[in-house]
Amino acid sequence: MSGADGRARRFARAWDDLRGRSGRRVVDLVRGQIALARAGAVLARSTASGTVERSAARAQMAEVEHEGDAARAELVRLLRWVLVTPIDREDLFRLSRSVDDVLDHLRDHVRETDLFGPEDLAFAVEPLQAVIDGLDELEKAVLKMIDDPGSVTVAVLATRKACSRVRQLYQARLAELFAGPLEMDTLRRRELLSRLNAVGRRLGEAADALADAMLKRSH
C-alpha cells in the first residue's frame, strides 16, 4: 500500500467515525453475536423439548458456534482501527466476551445432553426460555446505545431479571431433584442444571458490562 493509499484509508475511517457509521457497525456486530447466542439457546430448548434430535442438535450447534467465533473475531478486528466507539472499548470487549461465553456454555449443554443426558429433558425447557428472554432484552439494550442511551438501563434491568429467573429455576429444579432418590440420573440432571446456571451467570456478566459502560458514558 502506498503512502497516499494509507492516508486515504485513514481519512475514510475518520470520516465514517464522524458520521457515526463506525459506531453503528460496532452495534450491529454485537447484535449479531447476541443473535447467534439466541439461536444456540433456541436450539438447546428445541432439544430439551424433543423437537430436535440430540445428535443433530450437537452438529447444528457446532455450526452456530463457528459463526459466533467469526462474529467476535470481526468485532475485535474493527475495534483495532475504529476511532470512536459507542461505549468504552474495554467494556465492549467484556460484553462481547460474555456473550461468547453464553454461546460456549450452551454448546457444552447440548453436547452433554447427547453424551450423558437423561431421557427426559423437560426440566431444561423453562430455564432455556428465560435465557432466550434475557438475550432478547440484551439485544434491545444494545440497539439503543446510540439513539436512545437513556433507556438502555431499563432493558439491562430486564436482562438481569431474566438471569434471576434462570437462577431461581435452577434452585427449584435442584431442590426437586434432591427430594427424590439419589441415582445416576440424578447426577446427570444436576450437571445439566449447573451448566444452565452458568449460562445465566454469563448472561448476567454481559448485562453488567453494558450497565458499567453506560454509567461511564453518563459521567
What does this structure look like?
- This is DUF47 domain-containing protein.
- Belongs to the UPF0111 family.
- Pfam families: PhoU_div.
- This protein is mainly alpha-helical and 219 residues long.
- The chain has a single domain, classed as Up-down Bundle (Methane Monooxygenase Hydroxylase, Chain G, domain 1), CATH 1.20.58.220.
- The protein has 7 helices and no strands.
- Helix 5 packs antiparallel against helix 6 and helix 5 runs parallel beside helix 7.
- About 5% of the residues have low confidence.
Secondary-structure-based class equals mainly alpha
pLDDT averaged residue by residue: 89
For the termini, the CA-CA separation is 41 Å
Could you give a short account of the major beta sheet? none
Known CATH architecture: Up-down Bundle
If you consult CATH, what is the topology?
A: Methane Monooxygenase Hydroxylase, Chain G, domain 1
Query: Number of folding domains?
Result: 1
Q: How many β-strand runs? A: 0
Q: Which percent range fits the helix content?
A: over 70%
The unreliable regions are 10-19
Give the topology, please:
Elements: H1 3-18, H2 21-48, H3 54-81, H4 89-116, H5 125-147, H6 152-178, H7 184-218
Write out key terms for the chains shown.
DUF47 domain-containing protein; 219 residues; UPF0111_domain; Put_Phosphate_transp_reg; PhoU-like_sf; Methane Monooxygenase Hydroxylase, Chain G, domain 1; 0% strand; globular; mainly alpha
How would you briefly describe this protein structure?
With 219 residues, this protein is mostly helical. The chain has helices spanning 3-18, 21-48, 54-81, 89-116, 125-147, 152-178, 184-218. Helices cover 84% and strands 0% of the residues.
